[in-house]
Sequence to fold (291 residues):
Amino acid sequence: MLSILIPTYDFTCYSLVADLHQQAETLGIPYEIIVAEDGSRSQVDIIANHKIEELSHCHHHIRKENIGLASTRNELVTIAQYEWILIIDSDAVVEKLDFLRTYIQAIGKAEVVVGGLYHQKENLDPHKSLRFRYEKKADLHRNATERNQHPYSRLSCFNIMLHKDLFKQVQFDKDCKDYGYEDALFGVELEKRGISILHIDNALLHNGLDTNETFLRKSETALRTLKSLNGRMEGHSYVENTYKKLCRWHLAWMVRLFYHLMGGIMRSNLYSRNPSLLCFYLYKLCYYATL
Fold:
């Protein structure tokens, strides 16, 4: 029936697994929950996660080498024993008591079913204000109705169910070894093949907000990933599309110059307790232009 797959890296997700385990037991369905450590360095998290083995139908795999989120997801699918695959990021929190039941009821309605994500109403840590503001703005458009209007471009694999046979046609791209764009590229490949997607309101709480410095560093890594894809995201990335327009208008040099002159000032704003999202979007464009 259902294989629940959770890749993780330096994060304790025992509570997530315990909640999912309880719901699956209540439903009485054939299931398994597999957590895979993708080269985690934190022994504290690895030891905490290993308690998962004490729960029935739950397994904890430890990979010493870090191969990236995309490849870890692919590996998990290959060892999954059931036909329906539910992939969940490890920094998720289950707040809906009928979370798994809602997914079970959606089986057969599409080849891919996407539940969505949301964030807490308030942020009590000013050092995480940039990621919080970015995500809360995105949350305004994460309801199922809006996601279904653009089912492929709004794809997030934070919380997604799909049929195992689908992986015979398309997998998560192994070229996405570092942070960023594995979900977006997966959506592009699904669209190319005409694979049906249904977005439903079955969201999980995202509980893994980064500090401003970490989020900016991850954003830079994601942009380097985008650059390394050599146009495979063409037409699907706002940053890349905007940069190409600047090149056609012979203005890319101005953006690079602006970054060299103002990059430090922009970073200071983004590291602050009151970062500007407009500054963040401009910084990403300028950084991409320097690559």
In short: Residues 83 and 154 are 25 Å apart (CA to CA).
